[in-house]
Amino acid sequence: MSISNKTVIITGAAGGIGSALVKAYLELNYNVVANGRNSANLETMATKLGNPERLLLISGDIGKPETSKKLFAKAIERFNKVDVLINNAGIFIAKPIINYTEEDVDTIINTNLKGFFYPSQTAANHMMNNGTGHIINITASIAIQPNAKLPTLLPVLIKGGINQATRALGLELSSSNIQVNAIAPGVIDTPLNAIHNAQDRVNLAKMSPMEKIGNPQNIVDAAVYLTQSEFVTGTTMIVDGGASTGVW
């Protein structure tokens, strides 16, 4: 089996932005380790891509530390090392604060917070030994500028914290030549945003002053740029059609 020089781990890889990232990095000749909670969804994604030999599927709950350890152990066993971690797994629950349930809180903490922390911790340990690496966190632009039309306290709380943690971790790991950055998407055309009809599309497009909805490739382009950068760390790249620039 031919093994390329670089390997990326992508969480939340079965659909939407995640599957677009998998496809893009395979096309860049990376080895790709794809994680998702549901093994059947991962298999479906892999089948659509032709089941390439450089794609390794590992299902599991990314909010559990043992899943992160397994991801890196299997990646190293198959591909020798990990160069890039993309923390893409996440859920988005939008509702007024008084309507959030205890289950909502636990679900977002487990997926969005723990699903960032444990992979990043494992990646830092591995990449420090290699003396190089990239960690990219997919967050949300609404965490930078909340919008009264879309109450989202829990995502703002967690994703906003990850935006700040990106700065702190970029600083902490800079001496080990590990670059840590985030991408803050606006409204992207994925199943997460549940665009059911033309009116949904019109309403969501109005969430940005450009009155456009982004697509997964917009986020892929940002991730590839950050992966290939040599002098960028601790930043959050906003990809939201201007939604966080001000009031319009």
Task: Tell me what the structure shows.
- This protein is of the alpha/beta class and 248 residues long.
- 44% of the residues lie in helices and 15% in strands.
- It has a seven-stranded parallel beta sheet with strand order 3-2-1-4-5-6-7, with helices on both faces.
- Strand 4 (84-87), helix 4 (102-130) and strand 5 (133-138) form a beta-alpha-beta unit.
- Helix 1 (16-27) crosses helix 7, helix 3 packs parallel to helix 4 (102-130) and helix 4 packs parallel to helix 5 (153-173).
- The chain is globular and about 50 Å long.
Class by SSE composition: alpha/beta
The shape is: globular
Number of contiguous helices: 7
Helix-strand topology string: EHEHEHEHEHEHHE
**Poorly predicted parts:** none
- Portion of residues within helices: 40-55%
β-sheet strand percentage = 5-15%
Radius of gyration: 17 Å
Cross-sheet strand order for the largest sheet: 3-2-1-4-5-6-7
Number of strands: 7
Mean pLDDT: 94
Q: Span between N and C termini?
A: 54 Å
Biggest sheet features: 7 strands, parallel
